[in-house]
From TrEMBL:
The family this protein is said to belong to: Belongs to the TVP38/TMEM64 family.
The species this protein was found in: Pseudonocardia alni subsp. carboxydivorans
Pfam families: VTT_dom
Protein name: TVP38/TMEM64 family membrane protein
Main location, first listed in the record: membrane
Membrane topology: Multi-pass membrane protein
Ranges where the VTT domain occurs: 64-186
Positions of transmembrane segments: 12-31, 51-80, 87-105, 135-155, 167-188, 194-214
Family matches, as PANTHER family: GOLGI APPARATUS MEMBRANE PROTEIN TVP38-RELATED
Keywords assigned by UniProt, alphabetized: Cell membrane, Membrane, Transmembrane, Transmembrane helix
UniProt subcellular location: Cell membrane
Superkingdom of origin organism: Bacteria
Length: 229
């Protein structure tokens, strides 16, 4: 019996341990200051944006607020280099968080909800929705995030959404807001400039869109007739 039990438990235990480490890192490190980042990236030359992307990806696996990191990317590298580096880090972090949850946690969640009729029914509804409308669901949640970025990445991995829909939905959902945040950091030294004002306006549009989506009626369950297409 010990062997099968260990085989069932090592994945969720490892996932919980990784989440715990991420929380500790977030509390201990927090969001690095501009001075710390500049000192750390000084002299890296062309490799600086690549290092920033790697650092961003790593920190996006923790509860550190990625919005502040996006602004820092603009401050450090400007808009032209800061945006692709920040987006690359964000997408890599999203993919890694999803893969960890899918590989280490989904089977355990399915076994747990099987023991509860109500829990199994709700999980089945969620899985059905994300199988049929996964791309739109991911875009909507990314535009109207109600949880930290790292938590959402893990939660999506626990669902049945297809990875390609998840990744494409993440790209479509986070790019507008991230672009505006990087631009705010890049042009923040001149708050009266047109690029800065456009950035703030774009960020306001993204936030308003997210609020509207968040206030919409929840998605229908499996009992409802499917939408065309």
């Amino acid at each position: 019996m010990t062997g099968p039990v260990v085989a069932r438990l090592w994945r969720p235990v490892l996932l919980v341990a990784l989440v715990g480490v991420a929380v500790v890192v977030a509390v201990a490190v927090g969001v690095p200051s501009v001075e710390q980042l500049r000192d750390g990236l000084a002299g890296t030359g062309w490799a600086g944006p690549l290092l920033w992307a790697a650092l961003y990806a790593g920190l996006s696996l923790t509860p550190v607020p990625v919005s502040l990191l996006a602004v820092l990317g603009g401050v450090l590298f400007g808009f032209g280099e800061g945006l692709p580096a920040t987006l690359a880090g964000k997408f890599v972090g999203a993919a890694v968080g999803f893969a960890l949850a899918r590989r280490l946690g989904r089977d355990t969640v399915l076994r747990l909800v099987d023991r509860s009729g109500r829990g199994a029914e709700r999980m089945a509804v969620v899985d059905d929705v994300v199988r049929r409308r996964g791309l739109l669901a991911v875009v909507g949640v990314r535009l109207a995030p109600v949880l930290p970025y790292s938590v959402l990445n893990l939660l999506w991995g626990l669902t049945a959404v297809r990875f390609r829909h998840y990744l494409l939905g993440t790209v479509l959902g986070v790019t507008p807001g991230t672009t505006a945040l990087v631009a705010v950091g890049a042009f923040g030294t001149d708050p009266g400039s047109l690029p800065f004002l456009v950035s703030v306006a774009g960020l306001a549009v993204v936030v308003l869109t997210g609020v509207v989506l968040a206030r919409r009626r929840p998605v229908r369950s499996r009992a409802d007739p499917p939408a065309d297409g």
